[in-house]
Amino acid sequence: MNITKYIKLMGLIISVVVVNILVLSPGFIGVKIGGSPLETAVGVTVLFASVLVLLYGSYALLFKTPAALPVKQIKTYEDYVEALTHYRKVKVLESDITLALRQLERIRKKKDTLLEILNQRFESTELSYIKFTSVTQEVEKLFYLNLRSVLNRLHVFDEAEYESVIVQKSTQLSPKILQERTIVYNEYMNFIKNSLSTNEEILLKLDKLILEISRLDSLEPGDIEAMPCMQEIDSLIKQTKHYKQ
Q1: Please, what is the angle between helix 94-121 and helix 127-155, to 10°?
Q2: N or C: which end of the chain has fewer CB within 10 A?
Q3: Mean pLDDT on 2-9
């Protein structure tokens, strides 16, 4: 359970406790259970409602699977983690989702490491610093673009349909229809795997970039484009943009 759910659960518990204190405490409303029939009824109702609220709230926060976050609303790192985690229980996609979540964590760490190295070696106003940070932003943008494409596919993926296609127990459909359905769902899976593979390549090239920058003693701005890792990154960005168009 993430920290947000902990906060919400604690807020719910505190709210219920405060309501009970206000209603039942002699210093406030002072409803007395065992007093008049009306007071007893109100007091029991408040306690019963409190129990129901706590039980349902705990279930909703701890056990109920939240609705998938619409891709258009995904903005932050935490949004991507939440969106991917929603599909983690889909058995056929479990390994892919686990990989995507690891990749998310890794690119954040690599970006922090790269910026730390750049800040140690260059001034933020230097052309070299600007060039490196610019390409880092482009690579990060490409990474998240691939991830958004994966989430778009996951949003319309039907696990039950996929399993029926793979098992192919139905005898009511013609072999041609079954074959076409298999092709469609294989395309879903292949797209997801290819997008994650591209992101893995991005992470590898960031590793190479970090390594090459850490080895530099001096660098002229004109040498940046000649660096092998920069050429590889530029080629990857161009190829992927062309593929997405």
Answers
A1: 170
A2: C
A3: 71
